[in-house]
Amino acid sequence: MIKTARFLTSNQDAKKCPPPNKPEYAFIGRSNVGKSSLINMLCQSKKLAKISSTPGKTQLINHFIINDSWYMVDLPGYGYAKVAKTKRAAFSKMTFEYLNTRENLMCLFVLIDVRIEPQALDLLFLNTLGDEGVPFVMVFTKADKLTPTVLDRNITHYKAVMQQEWDELPQMMVTSAEKGLGRDEVLGFIDNINKEWSP
User: Fold this and answer.
1) 3-state DSSP call for residue 64?
2) Cα dihedral sign for 97, 49, 105, 9?
């Protein structure tokens, strides 16, 4: 579990990230998916990741050091229309350079708002990760906003849509930053990988 969490560095260049001498876990999703809220919930801190009412606020690769033993990374969101296309292209290039070169990246957590229909942009991003061999887990957010019946129905629908392209579905987790749902599952998943880490 997390005992200490502190901000380490921000930058726009994957080559300038901290030395890859610790296991690393990154979080990404469409703008306004609740990424900062989830990171803060996992770390039990209200101020670690900056939460903004303006979607698309995260425009850098933000590194946090957890328990002085592993990195948590907040990546720029994608798909927000009010960010200029040139900036969106830069985000994408920066993000994929990070994903393709960061040798200590153990898993990318891709956040999906469970309340909405499968979005073409999310599905394309997931397919790209699969094509490029990036290890990832899907994390459904904002589960507290739905009744259990609707939650199950939406996840079942998402799986059905993905099965049109995927032979084997990626691992999926369900979370709520507001209720703390999924915290033990996400951190337990990370802890299990960390036990096998060797630089």
Assistant:
1) strand
2) positive
Does position 88 have pLDDT exceeding 60, yes or no? no
Distance of alpha carbon 135 from alpha carbon 126, whole angstroms: 10
| Residue 155, SS3 per DSSP | helix
Q: Which long-range contacts (CB under 8 A, 24 or more apart) does 160-169 make?
A: 161/118, 161/123, 162/118, 162/123, 162/126, 165/123, 165/127, 166/130
Widest pairwise Cα distance in the chain: 46
Q: Residue 75 corresponds to which tokens in the numbers above? A: 């990546």
DSSP-derived secondary structure letter, 199: -
Q: Which pLDDT tens digit goes with each residue over 30-72?
A: 888 999 999 999 999 887 887 554 444 457 899 999 999 999 9
Provide the 10 A C-beta neighbour count for residue 73: 22
- CB of 171 closer than 8 Å to CB of 137: yes
Q: What is the pTM of this model?
A: 0.92
51: three-class secondary structure by DSSP: coil
State how far the Cα of 36 lies from the Cα of 47, in Å rounded to an integer.
9
